[in-house]
Amino acid sequence: MEDNLSRMVRSKDAKINAFSRLIDAGIIGSTLVALVSVLKLDWLPSYSWLLLSAIVLFSFLTESSRSYKSWRDISISDEIMAVGSNWLVVVIVFVAIQATLQPVDLYNREIVLYWFILTPIELISWHSIMRMALRFFRYTGVSAQTVAIYGATELGSGLETRIQSMPWAGYNFVGFFDDRKTNGTRRFISDQSQIKGGSQDLIDQARAGTVDTIFITLPLAAENRIKSLLDELSDTTVSAYMMLDLFSFDLLNASWLDVQGMPAVSIFESPHTGLDNITKRCLDLVFSTLILGLIAVPMLAIALSIRLTSKGPVIFRQLRYGIGGESIHVWKFRTMTSTDAGDGEVKQACRSDSRITKLGRFLRKTSLDELPQFFNVMAGTMSIVGPRPHAVTHNEFYRSAIHGYMLRHKVKPGITGLAQVKGYRGATDTLEKMEGRIKYDLEYIRSWSLWLDIKLIVMTVFVGFTNKNAF
Description:
disordered N terminus; 3 domains; 49% helix; alpha/beta; two-stranded antiparallel sheet
């Protein structure tokens, strides 16, 4: 099974997106060629490999991060952020590869540096100009669509609010249509003046060509009404979309699946599937390689300090739950005079805990005790960004106390995460603290993107290493 949303619902902007991909590749290539020409240098074979690799990787990242969504439904700022973050990953991958090949120098560093700087500027400029041109055409009525909603429901009301909030999309909303005359059902909206007529009125407008697109927002139980409307609309050229009323469920990364031609909607799913899973893994490997190279000496110094200041192993491991609820061993620098394996009763550290060594208190306060977990990331049992792993006994307790607790295990546990950046570090000695942590864990899973991971890594460097709740 795979995510086949793009096959099931074809974007009206598919031609624009294909054109944009070609222009992006052309900008990446022409910028490097122009720099070599302007600086009057020879074109080396290594430049061809560099260029091809950059185009393939950038295209892969933009596809996996869905940067080429419908140009009608995504804002300029979101697309600029996506383009910039995708190119940043290309740069990071190149730097990591170059670092492993030193002292071999395959490229003119001046050219590559200029290329890294100029390319994103040109890409962002091109995307911005194209977006503004499309917005202008849609504001002036060119490529605009007249939209109606059939079903005066809460779902329809929410859709109408979103349509009205993005005027650049070129949607001209004409109103709701519904055959029900009372608000006796909880789904019926209260403002009757928004309803412009019933199904026959909508069908007449569709046949007259005054409505381009119809969104059907009836509840799933209204199957007969939906089928009757679609039978009538099949005699028109209107575009019809069915909005599934699934928002009453606690969705986690809902997406379309195609099971041998049968469509299904996932209610609980990991965001890291298919290309997204490969992208996430590549990000982990690249960043972990760079970080381990930077922290190798500090880690040796910490290990030596632990050995000299207290008895016991330098590193210990604890049993935790990983992705899918599978048991994994998590590595940490020892910060206490005693260690718990994690599979039995685990006592959380408190502020005046006598088990914590003097050095250990500093390591825990600064999160330096977590550094060995980059080896977990390299091994594939953890990710740099994700929900923090909890001791097995804590998992078993909280899974029955907090609704949706185990859904955090739809992704790999991380060294840092949204909850930690938001201040949920240290002991979770109350149910309220754990509920706050789980809230942000699930929010991370729902809103995951490559850019969000990079953003959380940067935020951790500046605000996440020290915290008053860590001890």
